[in-house]
């Protein structure tokens, strides 16, 4: 029995669960979406909250520019470029024998400064928000101060009496560890046993305490353990990847910046020129926050689709069954083992799943083999090196254009509008992968392409 029903009766009421259980690539387009003007009310956060987060990042920009010189060129703003994917789009058409209308673009969060992944948005934002709270309460900052002053012995002395704890499969830990330790906090990162050695080494080199949970590859257990320890210590701020609205808002700021980037690249987004955005999903905070910002920025002209590994389809399972965080992939015997760092999550955020379900057009799964193949194709065609998880958004265009679930008609997507659509692949990580590991990824992908 699985949550009160046999597997056969789950298959009868929810036929796509069979694909999930068999770890077959699949797609689901939610028939229960609603116009943004209505569904944005579900979230419990507003455009003002995103503007507040954006203003906070602007206040910290002089400090960031000072302590991370690689951000000086952008004035301390942590942002990534967009770039067209003409060669990749052509390669996909050839390789899969399909015609792909519209224009593909890449959002290179893989190359965000400081921590080289999408976590440089939410993770760093929440650390800065906490630092501001502590500094204001401690009399170290007053409204209107130049935050560059936080690069001082006095500030580090104040922060060094405080701890920040987080549970992470890797990239969130890197972002929070590097930012937190730079400010002067004591940072404790709880990691599951499968976390990459180079990420642990890098964190330790920044003076971060890495707690390895050797007996579990389950990230949720590492998070729970981190939460338990932090709860017992009043000087410790726990960053809750499953429920934090601060993380979510840090991600959401991406959208207004993307809007400006698309405009300056001459890319039109409106109902006749729809924008599709494909977001790799782990627990859901990153893609959920970005999608929330996108719906605020573009309304119904943007269509957000989440991508998950075939072995960790937690958000698809949670939203499709309506059980959200009451169900895990392990409940259905799915092993949650994948090469896609950051996406190996068995139970989705209940907050994100519920808040965003009427705003997300669809969800699909991708096998590790597909990720490796696409990794090699991306490098061959565009010269861009990404980590496996960051490729999950690439097949999105084929899933949308090939779907047979009535989604395109339901969403009012005419052939004309699809011909002038933009398909943006959100590349979530990769630039910090050590060269040897990247070589191994590429070799694996190339070998698979030859089979
Ligand atoms: C964390 C992460 C994601 C997904 O973010 P969630 O908030 O966990 O859904 C995607 N890609 C990479 C590389 C990540 O590290």
**In angstroms, what separates the terminal alpha carbons?**
39 Å
Give the averaged pLDDT, no decimals: 96
Question: What's the count of strands?
Answer: 11
The first-level CATH class of the largest domain is given as: Alpha Beta
According to CATH, what is the topology of the largest domain? Answer: Rossmann fold
Small molecules bound: pyridoxal-5'-phosphate
Q: What proportion of the residues form beta strands (DSSP E)?
A: 5-15%
Query: Largest beta sheet: what is the strand line-up?
Result: 1-10-9-8-11-3-2
Report the radius of gyration as a whole number of Å. Answer: 21 Å
| Structural class based on helices, strands and sheet pairing | alpha/beta
Give the low-confidence spans.
Answer: none
CATH architecture of the largest domain: 3-Layer(aba) Sandwich
What is the helix content?
A: 40-55%
Number of helices: 20
How many separate domains make up the residues?
A: 2
Topology:
Layout: H1 7-13, H2 17-21, E1 27-29, H3 36-39, H4 47-67, E2 82-84, H5 86-96, E3 103-108, H6 119-137, H7 153-159, E4 163-168, H8 171-183, E5 186-192, H9 197-205, E6 209-213, H10 219-231, E7 236-239, H11 245-252, H12 254-264, E8 275-280, H13 285-298, E9 302-309, H14 314-321, H15 350-356, E10 362-366, H16 368-382, H17 396-402, H18 407-410, H19 415-419, E11 422-427, H20 435-450
Parallel strand pairs: 3-11, 4-5, 4-7, 5-6, 8-9, 8-11, 9-10
Antiparallel strand pairs: 1-10, 2-3
Helix pairs in contact: 4-11, 5-16, 6-8, 6-11, 8-9, 11-13, 12-13, 16-20
Question: What descriptive keywords fit this protein?
Answer:
451 residues; alpha/beta; Rossmann fold; 11 strands; binds pyridoxal-5'-phosphate; hydro-lyase activity; D-serine ammonia-lyase activity; EC 4.3.1.18; D_Ser_am_lyase
């Amino acid at each position: 029995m699985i949550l009160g029903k046999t597997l056969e009766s789950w298959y009868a009421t929810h036929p796509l669960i069979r694909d999930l259980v068999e770890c077959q690539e699949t797609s689901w387009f939610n028939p229960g979406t609603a116009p943004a003007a209505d569904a944005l009310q579900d979230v419990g956060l507003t455009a003002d909250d995103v503007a507040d987060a954006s203003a906070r990042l602007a206040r910290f920009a002089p400090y960031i520019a000072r302590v991370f010189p690689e951000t000086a060129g952008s004035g301390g703003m942590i942002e990534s470029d967009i770039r067209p994917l003409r060669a990749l789009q052509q390669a996909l058409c050839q390789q899969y024998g399909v015609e792909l209308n519209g224009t593909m673009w890449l959002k290179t969060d893989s190359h965000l400064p400081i921590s080289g992944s999408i976590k440089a948005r939410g993770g760093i934002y929440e650390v800065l928000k906490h630092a501001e709270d502590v500094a204001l309460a401690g009399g170290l900052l007053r409204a209107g101060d130049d935050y560059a002053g936080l690069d001082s012995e006095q500030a580090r002395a104040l922060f060094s009496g405080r701890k920040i704890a987080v549970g992470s499969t890797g990239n969130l830990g890197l972002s929070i560890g590097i930012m937190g330790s730079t400010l002067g906090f004591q940072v404790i990162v709880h990691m599951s046993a499968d976390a990459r050695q180079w990420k642990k080494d890098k964190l330790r080199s920044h003076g971060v305490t890495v707690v390895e949970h050797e007996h579990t590859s389950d990230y949720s257990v590492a998070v729970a353990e981190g939460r338990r320890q932090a709860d017992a210590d009043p000087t410790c701020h726990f960053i809750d990847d499953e429920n934090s609205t601060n993380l979510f808002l840090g991600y959401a700021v991406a959208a207004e910046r993307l809007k400006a980037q698309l405009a300056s690249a001459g890319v039109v987004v409106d109902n006749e020129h729809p924008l599709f955005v494909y977001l790799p999903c782990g627990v859901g905070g990153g893609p959920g926050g970005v999608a929330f910002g996108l719906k605020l920025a573009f309304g119904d002209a943007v269509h957000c689709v989440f991508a998950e590994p075939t072995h960790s389809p937690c958000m698809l399972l949670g939203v499709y069954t309506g059980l959200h965080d009451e169900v895990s992939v392990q409940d259905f015997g799915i092993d949650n083992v994948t090469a896609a760092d950051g996406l190996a999550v068995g139970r989705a955020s209940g907050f994100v799943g519920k808040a965003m379900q009427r705003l997300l057009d669809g969800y699909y799964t991708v096998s590790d083999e597909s990720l490796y193949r696409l990794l090699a194709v991306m490098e061959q065609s565009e010269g861009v090196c990404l980590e496996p998880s960051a490729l999950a958004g690439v097949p999105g265009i084929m899933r949308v254009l090939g779907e047979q679930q009535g989604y395109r008609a339901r969403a009012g997507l005419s052939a004309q509008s699809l011909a002038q659509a933009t398909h943006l692949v959100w590349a979530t990580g990769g630039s910090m992968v050590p060269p040897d590991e990247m070589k191994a990824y590429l070799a694996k992908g190339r070998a698979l392409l030859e089979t």
